[in-house]
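Next comes a single protein record:
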Amino acid sequence: MGFIRDRQTIAVLGGIWHDQKLDYAAGTNLIYRGVHEMHNISDDDTNWEVWKFSYDVSNNVTRIQGPLRGSWTNRATLGFV
């Protein structure tokens, strides 16, 4: 990414994240991970990049979906299957 100078492009490619949020199911498995290029941004901002993690009965990660862009507040409605 050394030749890319545009911060937004670098962020979309995963190069700059200044804020990160994690959401766990019952304190065990990570269900959602969200990142944003801005620090201390509102959860309602619609430029969060959000991933969803799925697990099998043995708590092994079986699928990672994303990132999808949207608000952290509405992460469950972003269109994950």
Summary: The mean pLDDT is 88. The first strand starts at residue 19 and ends at 25. The chain has one helix and four strands. The two ends are 31 Å apart (CA to CA).
